[in-house]
Design brief:
501 residues; 7-stranded mixed beta sheet; 5-stranded parallel beta sheet; 16 helices
Length: 501
């Protein structure tokens, strides 16, 4: 289980020293790790996509049961990596060991969920029987089935080194759908990506599959990502990351002669609506819950609560939130780029007219990032567009609203979100019908009296939402429905039974 610093291309570990190399950043020390990783060459990226296309015919025709066996084998091999995987990820991310252990099991359970879906549902079809006696014309037999799209490009995310990366939800759902996968590893945790790729490669061999079913290309160069999404063999893209990078890749997809689905999960501010009774009668409890949710994972979850809406005059809420924030802890963000962008956006907030910094915490090292809590009025928020932007990290903006009409004005000014929460007493929620209906059109998941941080992997989950939280409001990147992103419908009419196998 040694790290080679190479890319895995259809079963072969390849590197091109002429294309340069990069190193992972260690957030706990603020220094680069020693291991060098080669940037994949154009030829290696091309070979990965071509081999994925070569594997598509055999893999797409595998029975659902065999695809399920493959997913289970990947999960088993990830667990077989043991502490070696956890240790390298801890170095590359500085995430707590308990968090990494939990995320690893979530990733394995995600693979198991899709294998269960395949075994339970198989290759489902909708059949309409023929009716030769129908007048004025006979009715033909038609059946609706689903075909895998083809090779899928998956982009690893910085903030979830397991669950949204090499063997994460996009990879698992694409493989479940019958699509080979080419993963572009995130340069924040390349060693983690390589070890997980080793586990997938072992599973491929155990299941006697075409080696092109999976490849991992490592690179810190932006052009590698553009080349991958524009390769003619790639038939869909799964991406988790920032709005800016997502839109660059989406534009690159649009420049292809053949347009393909681009499923981007781009982030959100995840508004938290605190209604009157909750804000006044349970101020210390709800404010502490919001601060704890905000700083969880150092504010680097896509569902962290970045916008809190509270009634005007709730001074106890503000003072309690400020006190909790001052006592909170934060460490280094995942990469130098994330840290620099966080500092830049926090400075913009602090220098915006009508915005007040009401609390920040104390950090233990110069390269750590302070958690910060800002406040402003509803009118200032509505009229200042950059205050609507996500600050990726442990910062939140509190917006005070006058009444329900003012609250609805604020919500109407928002763009699409992954989640939103409504916090209220029973009496508050009895009168929240209009609020919940309006908010439902802004989000992919509407939550009541719970914090948004975290996503349950289950059959009913939806992790997506209106733009810019995701690029396709009809899709989810988490849950059993996620595999439907990578299939298309086909209708067979009067097809002979022996051809339907």
């Amino acid at each position: 289980m040694s790290i080679t610093g190479k890319s895995l291309v259809a079963g072969a570990w390849l590197s091109n020293n002429e294309n340069g190399s990069f190193q992972a950043y260690c957030p706990s020390t603020g220094q680069d790790l020693e291991q060098q990783f080669s940037n994949a060459s154009e030829q290696e990226i091309d070979q990965a996509a071509v081999q994925a296309q070569a594997a598509f015919t055999s893999y797409s025709q595998l029975p659902a049961e065999q695809r399920a066996d493959f997913l289970d084998a990947i999960g088993e091999e990830i667990l077989n990596l043991g502490d070696a995987l956890l240790n390298i990820t801890e170095q590359e991310t500085a995430l707590p060991m308990m968090r990494l252990q939990g995320e690893r099991m979530r990733t394995v359970n995600q693979l198991k969920m899709f294998s269960t879906v395949l075994r339970e549902q198989g290759d489902n079809e909708i059949l309409d029987q023929a009716d030769p006696q129908r007048a004025p014309l006979p009715k033909p037999e038609t059946r609706l089935r689903y075909l895998p799209l083809g090779p899928v490009a998956v982009f690893g995310a910085s903030n979830f080194p397991y669950a949204f990366s090499t063997a994460g939800g996009d990879t698992a759902s694409a493989l479940a759908a019958g699509c080979p996968v080419v993963v572009k590893g995130h340069p924040a945790h390349p060693g983690t990506s390589e070890l997980v790729a080793q586990a997938i490669s072992t599973a491929i061999k155990k299941c006697n599959l075409h080696a092109g079913v999976f490849s991992l290309v490592q690179s810190a160069k932006p052009q590698a990502s553009v080349q991958l999404v524009q390769h003619p063999a790639i038939q869909a893209v799964g991406f988790t990351g920032s709005i800016n990078v997502g839109q660059i890749l989406q534009k690159a997809v649009y420049q292809r002669r053949q347009n393909i689905p681009f499923y981007g999960e781009l982030g959100a501010v995840n508004p938290q609506v605190v209604l009157n009774s909750m804000a006044t009668e349970q101020a210390p409890t709800i404010s502490k819950g919001l601060v704890d949710s905000l700083v969880l994972g150092n504010g680097q979850f896509c569902t962290n609560p970045g916008l809190w809406l509270i009634p005007e005059g709730c001074e106890e809420f503000l003072s309690s939130a400020a006190a909790t924030m001052k006592d909170s802890s934060s460490t280094a963000l995942l990469t130098r780029g994330i840290s620099a962008n966080y500092a830049k956006l926090c400075d913009e907030f602090a220098n915006t007219t009508g915005v007040e910094l009401i609390a920040s915490n104390t950090v233990d090292a110069d390269h750590y990032s302070q958690a910060k809590l800002f406040s402003t009025s509803s009118d200032n928020f509505i009229n200042t567009p950059h205050l609507h932007e996500e600050v990726f990290g442990p910062a939140a903006l509190i917006v005070s609203y006058r009444d329900e009409t003012d609250l609805l004005r604020v919500l109407n000014s928002l763009e699409g979100q992954l989640t939103a929460s409504i916090h209220g007493s029973d009496s508050d929620l009895q009168k929240a019908g209009d609020l919940s209906r309006q908010l439902a059109h802004k989000v992919g998941r509407l939550i009541f009296n719970q914090m948004p941080t975290g996503v349950e992997v289950c059959y009913s989950m939806n992790h997506g939402g209106p733009f810019p939280s995701s690029t396709d409001v009809r899709s989810t990147s988490v849950g059993a429905e996620a595999f439907k992103r990578f299939v298309r419908p086909i209708c067979y009419q009067n097809m002979p039974s022996h051809l339907l196998a």
